[in-house]
Fold Antitoxin.
Amino acid sequence: MISVKDFKPDYITDAKGQKRAVILPLKEYEELLEDLSDLAMVAERRDEPVIAHKKVMEELKRDGCLPD
């Protein structure tokens, strides 16, 4: 995840010098979209029940996904 202080934006301004748009390097833009996607997924799954780590590990071992 990138930090706001890591951004290197350029700005498009109007005739009065007011910032109207932002230009980001493509890599920063793609990372920002990925972070937004991750946050949206977390929000969608917020109300799902929590499964204890121990139980998940037991199920994975039982199903042969992990060695005993």
About this structure: The two ends are 34 Å apart (CA to CA).
